[in-house]
Amino acid sequence: MRVGVVGGGQLGRMLALAGHPLGITVTTLDPNPASPAAQVAPAISGAYGDLDALAELARACDVATYEFENVPVDAARFLATRVPVHPDPTALEAAQDRLAEKTLFTEVGLPVPPFAPVDDLGSLRAAIEGIGLPAVLKTRRLGYDGKGQFVLRDALRADDAWRAVGEQPSILERFVAFRRELSVVAARDADGAIASYPLVGNEHRDGILRISRAPADVGAGIRAAADAHARAVLERLGYVGVLAIELFDVDGELFANEMAPRVHNSGHWTIEGASTSQFEQHLRAVCGFPLGEVSPRGTSAMVNLVGALPTTTDVLAVPGAHLHLYGKEPRPSRKVGHVTIVADDTAAREDALARLLPLIPEA
Amino acid sequence: MRVGVVGGGQLGRMLALAGHPLGITVTTLDPNPASPAAQVAPAISGAYGDLDALAELARACDVATYEFENVPVDAARFLATRVPVHPDPTALEAAQDRLAEKTLFTEVGLPVPPFAPVDDLGSLRAAIEGIGLPAVLKTRRLGYDGKGQFVLRDALRADDAWRAVGEQPSILERFVAFRRELSVVAARDADGAIASYPLVGNEHRDGILRISRAPADVGAGIRAAADAHARAVLERLGYVGVLAIELFDVDGELFANEMAPRVHNSGHWTIEGASTSQFEQHLRAVCGFPLGEVSPRGTSAMVNLVGALPTTTDVLAVPGAHLHLYGKEPRPSRKVGHVTIVADDTAAREDALARLLPLIPEA
Fold first, then answer.
1. What is the pLDDT of residue B333?
2. What CA–CA distance (Å, rounded) separates B294 from A132?
3. Which CATH architecture is the domain B2-85 placed in?
């Protein structure tokens, strides 16, 4: 079986590594000829919108998928004229537009913070009226130059906010004071079977995921709600593959924040911490194989390596630590690897984590 | 870190796959340019004794090792003039000669079946006298054309036995009726730390390993004896890397059969079934990193795929099954992959195994 992946970053790399034992050849397409994935599997070098490169990818695979949600939808649709593409490009489309995404969540019954579309200053003022403050103004599509978001606490600053987001089509969203961020990573196969990994608890710093813990320390009610949310979205989209949904826990009620139609950073712990890794699970789904078991093995924590690398010897001396490097040159804010800790119980996990964290440079 | 591996079969492949996440580039040397390892990592094509190819391997690595025990000792020694080689070529030497191997075992206190060197018909007759029958005459070095062994039940057939082994330097070994075959896979790092995986129970058919179960169902006394045996050999050889010793359980007493100075088929279950796989463990040791934890995750069984491949979909539908294909064309008696089952308890493992085995073609 041959799988084509648009994108050759660390997610493409880990998909490729999951493919090797299964006899699945993963070929990636990436503008960088020395991408993380190109170091471990066949790769095509080209822009995501390059039709020749996409055609070459289509010839190199039996089924295509993507490793990031900002793949041009046209590229995915072009691929889909030549090979099956999973998940369907409609999932990409929904994930690329915050308004479409929130609308989808609402339609399938996921609670979301109150939101309203903003297309100009007038509709922004109306949205402030309707939703109340504080609120966050976010561009509907990928932000640029850090101009993607503006926290609005004062209606008099509507003009500033509108300029700050580049006067792009946006949404205004009520600011919610959440207790913690959780994520649910789940998969649906071609026959409609669904499997959700244990819920993950996430800690961010400077907008970048730093630590995930799984299973998250939540009650059965929250777990069941998250699984139901994932199921609702997967079924609505007729989705095939792995999907992640970020959730805010607001006093025990879950609000959906955003989704990623792909394997997700908060699922990296599954490589050692679950029966089947999210990477193998995604390959199983898109190739038409049955899903694997998602039960956890003990309890896990995943720490991202951002901007700089720790010393390998030090990391490997931490009990239960598993090192994953992506073959990337360290640069500020760049994810260059992660470390997963697997332990028998939470206390042992936290002990190992306390030993690991001082070894991680904060660049 | 860069590791060179002499041999690019499935063991070299799985070493290379274990290297990728750790940032260790594994380069293999193999006569086959499309070897299993060459499909997933850099590879040099050349004969094991080709000095130019060996020099190229030495340039491509910081430390060298091997994936099979019949690497020419001269090749290993040549490499050792250029880069550190682990385990030391003396371990290869001992493993390549049954007399040296049994002598080593005896010297460090491992019980072995009574044996005697045989260099001609006269010494064979003397050995029969001394050891008694039934006994097995085995060439000291690698057998050829199936002529490597002869089971001798009648002293009158000494001539036949001597001809059967090609009149090569041999040993005569008392035939032991063992209850089961076990193996201990253990590692020693550069600082002398030693870690033994749980003892493995092995089932063979036609001289080929078919099923390993880990942890083996043995008492604490046998486990402790096996660990002590592994430690004795590792320390005597100043060994760095993973070593496997095959043991016969004869009514609760362990006899050492043979050793493999490398990762071993009976350790494949560790990829999913132990905290650290034997492949990562070997890389950790030869690179000078600390050893990883060897505790089992639940209970495992490993089934070799010999001569033919099962249907991927069928295998992946078995609970807890992990498929490993080696990228080899199926041929009779050829190991082309393995499947590992990991389960919470022995009953669940045996249930899954009972579901898996009918799916495995017996070619």
1. 92
2. 56
3. 3-Layer(aba) Sandwich (3.40)
DSSP-assigned states of every residue in B50-92: -HHHHHHHHHT-SEEEESSTTS-HHHHHHHHTTS-BSS-HHHH
Q: How far is A155 from chain B (nearest CA, A)?
A: 50
Asked if the C-beta of B34 comes within 8 angstroms of chain A's C-beta atoms, the answer is no
Please, what CATH class does the domain formed by B114-174 belong to? Answer: alpha beta
- What are the CA-CA distances from residue A172 to residues A30, A168, B72 (Å)? 34, 12, 71
Tokens 């430390």 sit on residue: B63
Domain covering B180-359, topology: D-amino Acid Aminotransferase; Chain A, domain 1 (3.30.470)
What pTM was computed for the model? 0.96
pLDDT digit string (tens) for A273-312? 999 999 999 999 999 999 999 999 999 999 999 999 999 9
User: CB pairs below 8 Å between A and B: how many?
Assistant: 69
| C-beta atoms of A323 and B21 within 8 A | yes
**Minimum-distance CB partner of B325 among A22, A292, A293:** A22
Q: In the numeric block, which tokens belong to residue A74?
A: 């046209």
CA distance A3 to chain B (A): 15
Kindly provide the b/e burial profile for residues A147-158, where b requires at least 16 CB atoms within 10 angstroms of the residue's own CB.
ebbbebeeeebb
| ipTM for the assembly | 0.95
Cβ–Cβ contact B87 with A under 8 A: no
Domain ranges of chain B: 2-85, 114-174, 180-359
> Mean pLDDT over residues B267-280, rounded?
98
